[in-house]
Amino acid sequence: MAEIEFTDTEFMICNAARLLEDNKTIFVGWGIPQVVAILAEKLYTPNIVQVFEFGAIGPLSRTPFLRGTMGGPSNTYRSLQWCSMNLAFSYAQAGYIDYGMLGAAQIDRYGNINSTMIGDDYEKPKVRFPGSGGGNEVASYCWKTIIVMAHEKRRFVERCDFITSPGYMIDGKSRDEVGLPAETGPYRVITSMGMFGFDEKTKELKLIGVMKGLTVDEVLDEMNIEPLVAEKVVELEPPTELELKTLREDIDPYGLIISKGRKIKLDI
């Protein structure tokens, strides 16, 4: 029996990359979503079309990944188009973007996410984050939004301190009732401990997978809300040797993203 060592950030990135489909479009957010898209393009979905809010459409990924260079050469190399921000978002509004990928500081049971501030006073928050950027447009208009976030009790809340990007129910109103396109919305939440979907009828958060080596109760204990639990919760495999080699030697050799988080050892 062999042992594999990885960080929970690498676990999130690999599981999110495995979700994407080839020949689809994806609106890529800053940070972890960029690494997810690059890994997917290299190993699983070579024909995926990445879309960036600053206007680059369909660039070829350049490595190594450089943090803080959202609009730099590595994210625009051989783009099919470099348009305005308004036009890039209009593609999502017109239904051309299949996937969106975002991070979140908080999430509630209906998939509303907060990336703006923590606290009950907007003017004097306990913590101020960068805010929406293009997050609201991604969550509003992409067909399927994937949220990638660390699994911490403080992040799963009954009500977000601020709703930056919409989920399925906002103050008792559905997406349809607030004017958002039908059939769009949160699709999966990938965390450092598991994976969630949303119930087809109630649109509530539902646990559908846990990291190999963890139990359902261990995952639920790290949440401030009680989600639905699927009848059959699948076991999520750890990163493969090829995924880790690609991440560590090609995409992020400086460990800007993948070195963060808890280190885990598993027998495989």
TrEMBL record:
Transmembrane segments: none annotated. Keywords: Transferase. InterPro entries: CoA_trans_fam_I (IPR004165), NagB/RpiA_transferase-like (IPR037171). The keyword Lipid metabolism does not apply. One of its GO terms (molecular function) is CoA-transferase activity. It comes from the Archaea. This is Acyl CoA:acetate/3-ketoacid CoA transferase, beta subunit.
